[in-house]
Structures are given as structure tokens and as C-alpha cells.
Amino acid sequence: MFAVSLRLSAALASTHPEIAAFAAGSDLGLLGAPCGLGPRALRDVRAGQDAGRFTVADAEVALSAVAGGLLGVLRLRERQPARVDTNVVDEPTDGCLRLLGVSAIEARRLAHRPRPAETTWSMALSAPASFS
């Protein structure tokens, strides 16, 4: 579920540019907000640690690195829209999963799975992570 949430968040640059612009303009300050993607993503990283899927020692440091990658993709889309489409987000997702400790083979598999329909993006971002 973390991979899906990350891919959908990065795809906001193409699917919902106004939301992406707000997120990109907020920098990493959104991570400390009491609601929204930051707390949900931290919950999901910790769930991944508890399930043994993520091997990072510090969930908050790992989330900061992942969020930096996401913001980079969102900002690149703002500056060079032709370079970032909804399929481009799979590579950064692959890298972020490996950063969290997922094996390269598994990260590639998860990052390149079919994405849910665009209409389900808000449900995926609010659902608790599943690591079964």
C-alpha cells in the first residue's frame, strides 16, 4: 500500500496539478502537519518496519528522504511538464522503496504494478497500509 500511495502522490503532478503545486510549495513543512499525507506516511513506514518489510532504523529520517524525492518530482513537473507524466513516477518510487530497505527486485515489482484508477486515489491515500 505504501508504494501505491507514493505513486499516486507523485502522479498528482499530472492528475491534480493544483494539489501538487500546493504540496510542492509547502516543502517538507507538510510532514509536521497534524493531518494529511505526512502523518499517514509515517504511520505506513512504521507499519512496514513492524511487518519487517522496511529495514530502516529511523522512520522519520526515512520519511524525510522519501518526501524529498516526492517533492523533487512534483517540482520537476512544475518546471518541465513534458518530462514528468504519470508513468515517470515509477522510477522514483522504486528508489524510495529501496531506500526503505525493500529488495531491488521487490521494489521494482511494486513500483511497476498497474496503478489504481484515478478516481480511487483519495481512498488509497487515506487507508492504512497493508503489508500482507
Describe the model.
The chain is mainly alpha-helical and 132 residues long. It has one domain (2-126). It is built from seven helices and no strands. It is globular and about 35 Å long. The model has no long low-confidence stretch (mean pLDDT 78).
Task: Sum up the structure in keywords.
single chain, 132 residues, mainly alpha, 7 helices
Q: How many domains? A: 1
Helix and strand content put the structural class at mainly alpha
pLDDT < 50 runs, ≥5 residues: none
Basic shape: globular
Our Rg estimate from Cα atoms comes to 14 Å
What amount of the residues lies in strands? Answer: under 5%
Task: Please estimate the helix content.
Answer: 55-70%
Distance between termini? 10 Å
Order of helices and strands: HHHHHHH
Please give the number of β-strands.
0
> Overall pLDDT, averaged?
78
Biggest sheet record: none
| Tally of helical segments | 7
List the helices and strands and how they pair.
Elements: H1 2-15, H2 17-26, H3 37-50, H4 59-79, H5 90-99, H6 104-111, H7 121-126
